[in-house]
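Hi W., the flavin mononucleotide complex you wanted:
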Amino acid sequence: MSSEHAVNTDTGAGPDKVRLGPVNALYPSLTTLVGAVVDGRPNFLAVAHVGIMNHGTPQYVSVGLNKAHHTPRGITAHGEFSICLPGRDLVEKTDYAGLVSGRRTDKSRLFDVFFGDLAHAPLIRECPVCMECRLARVLDFETHDVFVGEIVQTHADRDVLDAGGAIDVRAVDPLLFDMASRTYWALGEPAGKCWSAGKAMKERLEP
Ligand SMILES: Cc1cc2nc3c(=O)[nH]c(=O)nc-3n(C[C@H](O)[C@H](O)[C@H](O)COP(=O)(O)O)c2cc1C
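Structure:
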């Protein structure tokens, strides 16, 4: 570890805590493929800076895209985009989509493309789950624009749905993105049930 990392002995955090500066530690995040129609052609890029903005009605999600990229031009032009979730089997093509720009390379034939309800939100047949989004807002930051989209339709492969029709994340086998290790990770074992793992404690403390 570099000696420039100040040890927090003066703050009460103790010698085991190290100050890293403003490092973004919100990883792993989900690796997605974001698509738009740019100059009449579908174009996709790899995007890991994704967010859930409004969970409810409507459903809003966000993607943070560098202003220099090619894909945002299509999102701005048509007000529509897609977000698809590649499985582990698509790691090579996904990474490629994140290495080359549609500005110089035609990526329109990289995937088997289909369309759903929106004419300018290209979807990827090889991805087990795809969402069609209508652009709702753009947040303008220094280097990135955050495109907030309303999900208008979601498409899923039959074989990634559980018996109740919900998306089974284990079957999707998503690629998790970690910036620090520059590595795609896969899901591990379940660690507990949400809104359930803490129930016994809640009852103990607030009977
Ligand atoms: C795994 C991975 C994740 C990425 N995540 C983002 C991201 O969240 N936002 C972004 O602007 N670029 C991201 N990139 C970079 C773009 O995908 C890349 O620059 C791409 O070539 C841009 O394509 P385009 O110019 O055709 O739009 C990522 C790249 C990789 C490999």
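Residues 25-205 form a domain with the Pnp Oxidase; Chain A fold (CATH 2.30.110.10).

W.
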